[in-house]
Amino acid sequence: PRGTVRDDDGRIVVAGIALTDVAQEHGTPTYVIDEADFRSRAAEFRDSFAGWSIFYAGKALLTKTVARWAFEEGLNLDVTTMGEMRIALAGGMPAERLGFHGNNKSDEEIEFALEQGVGRIIVDSFDEIARLERACEAGGHTARVLVRVTTGVEAHTHEYIATAHEDQKFGLSIMGGQALTALVRCHSSRFLDLAGIHSHIGSQIFETHGFEVAIRRTMRLASQFRTATGVELAELDLGGGFGIAYVGADSPLATAEIAAAFEEMVEHECRGFGLSRPHLSIEPGRAICGPAGVALYRVGTVKIVELEGGRSRVYVSVDGGMSDNIRPALYAAEYSAAIANRNSSARPVLCRVVGKHCEGGDILIRDVFLPSDIAIGDLIAVPGSGAYARSMANNYNQIPKPPVVAAKDGVTSVMLRRETLDDIMRLDVGK
Ligand code: LLP
Asked: Binding positions for substrate (predicted)?
């Protein structure tokens, strides 16, 4: 997080609190979220994208407290399930500021969203449109909808997190014609209030080219829709995906730069197609909560493994792993690390930081230089862990999920408590 320093004793201090104190109070592993950092990144999106609606993507990290921060910073919230809706609402986010996503929303979820008055539903298939219409008819509701489209953009990111190419589960294809058909279908529905188009091209993206193509193709679609119906669409949502720096080689664009580029692209395409400027929105998740968070682990064993050619590698085992951060195993995601409890002037050696799971692929950081005197009991801080770590955590090997702790002005408060073995045992109702 911003403003992170080492104090005179060499301890890393986040939001005015030494991580050693966090470890003492809350144990390890723990995720620490710097509240001021989260808020300032949220505010940066709000201010840079003036006049746009910013939907914080709750899938990246969502607790009631986080929903409240997003609300207080003037953001809306992107939710994808009943669980995310429930937490967002419980955190005080008004239903009309929710955007409800998903490629397989259940009847129960749809009915809940309609009853609560969720602001917009992003429809993802013809089946869903029919399901939504039935629910509206039964409950006497009208749903404001955006149609999620596939723009055919090949986003430059990991295959599993690129979502605009044709052969994947999300959206309706512009190229194949289903997107226009769906828009016309929603427009002509008595139960639906068509707001516009939604495009999300992928995640952890560092350049604006893919967005540029997506803007051109969605605006062309809007123009085709106007030709078909005589009506201009009111809204365009460009999704999320703004990358953050996990390691030195990552160079994200500044939020203001992205905003300026998007403004220019939209203006250009509006002029080109003779369309008036739609209301615009984006859905950043990682870029708001990722850098605000750090994961804290305790070193349990240090093992030197001899390699061929007289080389060796230091395996540093920590008390978490692929259950609290699946991203390295799933996407070959890279992270950095630092010893959090002390300075060291020992020479840096190549280490591999691994977890405690029964699996060879349980690697948190494949290659990282750490001081050669790294030892049992040291604390390791992994920056960038605010996004998609706790939210994708699991109980592999029956390990309870770590807590999420908010840090502000030298004080921590638990927003999500540590899961206990009792929590886990309670679910096992067999005899
Ligand atoms: N909007 C939609 C429709 C999305 O599907 C996503 C991410 C976002 C916004 C937010 O994207 P962000 O700004 O956070 O990149 N779990 C993966 C990434 C997949 C995210 C899926 N959707 C990861 O750990 O990198």
From this structure: 286, 327, 331, 359, 388
